[in-house]
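[step 3/7] inverse_fold.run input=structure_tokens len=226
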């Protein structure tokens, strides 16, 4: 159950550690190939919302299932829909640049999206599609896949990129201007909201805040021994 997001404090830390110990003692690190295959098949065969009608393919994560830090984006765009992997386009390039600077080892990073299929609207030319943000009903329809993904990866920290993935862990509509760079707990999860890299691309005024948030994230990972 996801409870109201609160700023991370000592109580949450104890609860979180208890929960993680429980997982580790009882789940036996059972990220078996068959569990991974079952998760990916569930996503690829999903027809729960109309995005299934326009997608080329559903996009699972970057397949780094041993990662203990989950980066959660919004939804695939045209490049991701085409290549079948998250952050394959321009926003991904910028994200990779920030991550390289952060020096967080790539093998620690599971990268996925809150919504697994590309949300589209008709483009100017007949038959062409353009990207659009996912609708609340699409985010809700995809929630079961996110829950399965979280159960499989069991991340110690979830870095939400923008308002859509942040909204999956908050009861109210996230105001990124207020919550970026401030970690909080949601149920057993620790959440660290960042601006979406595309927001930084289109609004260079956010770049400085993004870089500072990245530094805060690295310190947070070190101080909390994540
Ligand atoms: N690419 C993704 O995979 N997710 C986003 O949120 C944006 C671009």
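[step 3/7] decode complete -> sequence:
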């Amino acid at each position: 159950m996801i409870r109201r997001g609160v700023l991370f404090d000592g109580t949450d830390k104890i609860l979180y550690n208890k929960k993680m110990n429980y997982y580790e003692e009882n789940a036996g690190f059972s990220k078996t190939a068959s569990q991974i295959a079952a998760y990916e098949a569930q996503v690829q065969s999903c027809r729960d919302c109309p995005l299934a009608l326009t997608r080329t393919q559903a996009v699972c994560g970057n397949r780094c299932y041993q990662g203990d830090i989950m980066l959660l984006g919004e939804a695939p765009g045209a490049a991701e829909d085409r290549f079948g992997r998250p952050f394959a386009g321009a926003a991904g390039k910028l994200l990779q640049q920030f991550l390289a600077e952060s020096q967080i080892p790539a093998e620690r990073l599971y990268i996925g999206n809150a919504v697994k299929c590309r949300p589209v609207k008709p483009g100017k030319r007949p038959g062409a599609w353009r990207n659009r943000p996912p609708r609340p009903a699409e985010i809700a329809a995809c929630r079961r896949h996110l829950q399965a993904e979280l159960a499989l990866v069991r991340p110690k920290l979830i870095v939400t990129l923008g308002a859509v993935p942040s909204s999956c862990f908050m009861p109210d509509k996230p105001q990124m201007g207020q919550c970026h760079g401030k970690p909080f707990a949601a149920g057993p999860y620790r959440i660290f909201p960042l601006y979406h890299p595309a927001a930084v691309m289109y609004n260079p005024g956010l770049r400085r805040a993004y870089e500072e948030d990245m530094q805060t994230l690295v310190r947070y990972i070190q101080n909390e021994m994540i």
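[step 4/7] annotate
Confidence is low (pLDDT under 50) at residues 1-14, 22-29.
The beta strands are 6-7, 69-73, 109-113, 120-122, 129-131, 157-161, 184-186, 189-194.
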